[in-house]
Amino acid sequence: MNTAVLAPTLLEGLMKDYPYLPGIVFALVCLLILFLVVLPRFPSWWRGRGRPVVDPVQVTEMIAGPGALVVDLRSVEAFRSGHIRGSLHVPFEDLAQRFAHPDPKANRSLILMDDTDELSHLALAQLTARGFSWVYVLKGGMKAWRRANFPIAK
């Protein structure tokens, strides 16, 4: 009986020499997937560190409860394409003129929002420097609102 000895393949050789290799590859694939899931939300988280941010669920509760005012900082075209019902449209460029100083009689909190929350954090810094209090930023902006499937008015 003549049996041919088969030469080990490269993969079999690697598995014999490095038995922990499949675990490392699996861990790297899991880290890559986690990184790709977290990466799109990272800029919003980084801007919101230590600042008063609210998510879409909290915004709906604030609008229904104490009657917070949502200030939409997007362009006219973006506002017309869809906005949060009852929001006040104030383009970011006009924010300094429209909110020059706080009204002492106003008891409503302000929720700033734009497409991604980038302009909202700039507006938050401007308004708090002018003495406004109870100002919040919608975390993730209109993208987060749409992602949560909340109603949009046109």
**Going across the major beta sheet, what is the strand order?**
1-5-4-2-3
Most strands sheet: 5 strands, parallel
- In terms of per-residue confidence, which ranges show pLDDT below 50 for 5 or more consecutive residues? none
Number of helices: 8
Give the helices and strands as they follow along the chain.
Answer: HHHEHEHEHEHEH
Backbone CA Rg: 26 Å
User: By helix and strand content, what is the structural category?
Assistant: alpha/beta
The amount of beta strand, in percent, is 5-15%
Helix content: 40-55%
- In total, how many beta strands? 5
Shape: elongated
Mean pLDDT: 85
Distance between the termini: 83 Å
Number of domains: 2
Question: Mind telling me the CATH superfamily name of the largest domain?
Answer: Rhodanese-like domain
CATH class of the largest domain: Alpha Beta
Kindly report the CATH topology of the largest domain. Oxidized Rhodanese, domain 1
CATH architecture of the largest domain: 3-Layer(aba) Sandwich
